[in-house]
Design a protein that fits this description.
By secondary structure, the chain is an alpha+beta fold. It has helices spanning 3-15, 20-36, 44-50, 55-63, 89-101, 121-126, 148-157, 162-172, 185-192, 194-206, 229-239, 274-290, 292-299, 306-320, 325-341; strands at residues 69-75, 81-87, 133-138, 210-214, 217-222, 250-252, 259-260, 263-264, 271-272. The strands form 3 sheets. It has a 4-stranded antiparallel β-sheet. Its EC number is 2.7.7.49.
Length: 342
């Protein structure tokens, strides 16, 4: 706790003439917030000032949230579409403030590798390198499974009173769920999964297994994973208010090819998959040999910055395998294409 911050609040509250009886209650609240590393918020006018909005605009967001979102669909790699509900800039700015000033203050265990600064799919995959057996479990409808009540409980647990928690929760939810596209949904999902993570970690540690969760993607690895353990994993997930997508559960045994968060760890070191390397090299070859216009027309590609997209794909490969000779040759060719096509 930072006593300097508390003392500044006490001085301010006395300067504005707050009665001592109220001052005591306010100071207790402030101390809880300071202890949790979050800013004290007293009511909607104060929240509006903190987020840089006028009170009427903020209340419009709170009570008419659906008017501040647009909806579109993205195609899934596995087939079908994923519904994205993205906030308009005014609400997005408020959510970013909530994310940076409140949600980011909550500490997360190392087993959580998604939606947090300094962690990536590479960190997640590395945790399971050299392990003989792996189970991958997907949580079904991850964000929609988290409702308004659970979000409000999160803000209350951070020290906020019911009225403030209500406002914050309304700004972070849509139709009684976390929208996939809101700036606050990733951090809130990680906080809400904290008990699930503790239970998985404790269970796995007792059996000398490793556990990580990258968003809705759970990975457990070890020398040997008992056959009946998966059922216990599913029970934990369900008891925490989620549901496992059992059709997407994957078991990797010793000697099998192992893919974790999209990376191949079969050799004991994370690599991009063979199909990823092959597809990039094929696209680069066809652009080089047939020309950009012919390639995009043949593949029906509608991307004005296609060469830069190719570079981005190779740069991702570089981030995973910086010493790969194949990658370096492909990157050199892409940079030549950039000079050629601008």
């Amino acid at each position: 706790m930072n006593p300097y911050i508390t003392q500044r609040w006490i001085s301010y509250l006395r300067d504005i003439g707050l009665q001592e009886e109220l001052l005591t209650r306010y100071v207790e609240y402030i101390e809880v917030c300071v202890k949790n590393g979050v800013p004290p918020i007293f009511e909607q006018v104060h929240l509006a000032k903190l987020t840089g909005r006028n009170t009427d605009d903020l209340m419009a967001m709170v009570f008419g949230t659906e008017s501040f979102y647009r909806e579109f669909r993205l195609r899934k790699r596995s087939g079908g579409f994923r519904k994205i509900r993205a906030p308009y800039p005014s609400l997005l700015e408020v959510q970013r403030w909530i994310n940076e000033e409140i949600l980011s203050k909550r500490k997360l265990p190392n087993c959580v590798t998604g939606f947090r600064e300094g962690y990536s799919i590479l960190d997640n995959a590395r945790m399971h390198c050299g392990r003989d057996e792996i189970i991958k479990i997907d949580i079904k409808d991850f964000f929609p499974s988290i409702n308004f009540k659970r979000v409000m409980s999160t803000f209350i647990s951070l020290g906020y009173p019911v009225n403030v928690s209500f406002f914050l929760s309304r700004l972070c939810t849509l139709d009684n769920e976390l929208p996939q596209g809101a700036a606050t949904s990733p951090a809130l999902s990680n906080i809400i999964c904290s008990n699930l993570d503790k239970r998985f970690y404790k269970l796995c540690r007792s059996r000398r297994l490793r556990y990580t969760r990258y968003a809705d993607d759970i990975t457990i690895s070890g020398k040997s994973i008992p056959d009946g353990l998966a059922k216990l994993f599913f029970e934990i997930i369900e008891s925490e208010g989620f549901k496992a997508n059992e059709t997407k559960t994957r078991y990797y045994r010793s000697g099998e090819k192992k893919i974790v968060t999209g990376l191949d760890i079969s050799t004991g070191k994370p690599r991009v998959t063979r199909s990823y390397r092959r597809d990039i090299q094929k696209d680069v070859y066809f652009v080089w040999s047939a020309g950009l216009s012919t390639h995009v027309a043949r593949r029906k590609i509608f991307a004005p910055n296609y060469i830069r997209q190719l570079e981005g794909r190779v740069r991702f490969w570089e981030s995973i395998e910086p010493e790969s000779r194949q990658m370096k040759r492909t990157l050199q060719r892409v940079m030549e294409l950039r000079l050629l096509y601008g």
